[in-house]
Fold this protein.
Amino acid sequence: MKRSPFVMLTWSSLKAYFRNRGAIFFSLLVPLMIMGIFGLINFGGSTASVNISVVDQAHNQVSDTIISNLRGIKAVKLHLGSLDAEKRELTQGNRDLVAVLPASIGQGSTAIAGYYNQGNPQNSQVAIAIMNQFMDRASFAQAGIAPAFTLQAQPVQSRNLTYVDFLVPGMIALSIMQTGLFGVVFTFVQWKQRGILRRLMATPMRVRDFFFSQLVTRLTTVALQIVVLLAVGFFVFHFHFAGNLLYLLIVGIVGGGVFLAMGLAISGASKSEETAAPIANLVSLPLMFLSGIFFARSSMPEWLQTITQYSPLTYVSDALRSISVDGASLWAVRGDLLGIFIWLGITVVLATRLFKWEVV
C-alpha cells in the first residue's frame, strides 16, 4: 500500500522532534519548571499582615482584653515586649506600630502613645486603623455605651482565584511561543548549514508536503503542551479551570501558527546559530516579560500597557486566560482572536519573504 509523502514526512518529523531532548526540555520541561517554582511561591496567595507591638504597662483587665482581641486578627502579627526593645525593633523596620498601654488605662480618659514606622506608611496606616478600632471598642465598653452603628458582615461564596489561576494560562502561552520560535529557528538554521534542506529539495518531495508536515508536528506539540500544563496545573496546583478545552486548543493552535511563522522568518534571515540566537532572544524576552505572562500588565506604566496590548503574546495569553478562568467562548474573545489573526498574516508574509533553503 502506497503511503502519502505528507504522512511519511509528518511521522518522521514527529519522531525526530520527540527524540530531540533539547526541544523537549525547552518547550515542555522549562515551562513546567517555571510553573512549579512560581506556583510554589504563589505570589499574592498569602494574606498580607502588619506587625503591631504592644507595650503593656497596665496589666489589667482592659489591657488584657485589647491584647486578646488583637491576637484574634489573622492580619496582625502581635508582639509584646518592653518599650525600649520594641522601639529598637521599630527603628530596624521589624514593626509597623508600637502601641503603649499606660498603667492608667481603664481609669478615665487616657492617651495611648503610638509609634509608627514612617518608612512603611501603607502598613503603618493599616496598623493605626486597627488599633483605633480597638481603642474605640474599649472606650465604648468602658463607658457602657452601645455603638450607634454596627457592620453586619455576610459571607458570600466566590471563586477565590489565586495567583496560580493567573499563572497557568500564561505559562501555556509561553510554551506555545517557545515551541513555535525556538523549536523552528534552531532546527531550520542547522538544516540549512548542513545542506539538509538543499538535498531535500533535490528529491521528488513537494514543498507543501514538507511545510505542512512541519506545521502539523509543531501544532501537535502545542496541543500536547496545553494538555500537559493544564493537567499539572489542575492536579498539582489546584488550578480553577472553568472553560472549554476545545476552545483552548483552537486558540493555542492558531497562536502557535504566529510563532511558527515568526521562527521561519528568523531562521530565513539568519546565516548561523550564532546570529539566530540573539535575534530570537531579542524577540522573545520582551514578549515574555511584557505580555502579562507572570504578572498583570495593569502594574505597568500606562504608556507601556498601551504598547504591550498589541503584542502577539498578549493576545494569546489574554484569550487563554479568559477561556480557562472566566469560561469565555470564542465569540467572547473575538477581539484577541482578531489580533492573533492579524499577527498571523504579518508573520506569514515575513516568513514567505525571508525564508531561504540554503545559506546565502
Q: What stands out?
A: Strands lie at 50-56, 76-80, 97-101, 113-116.
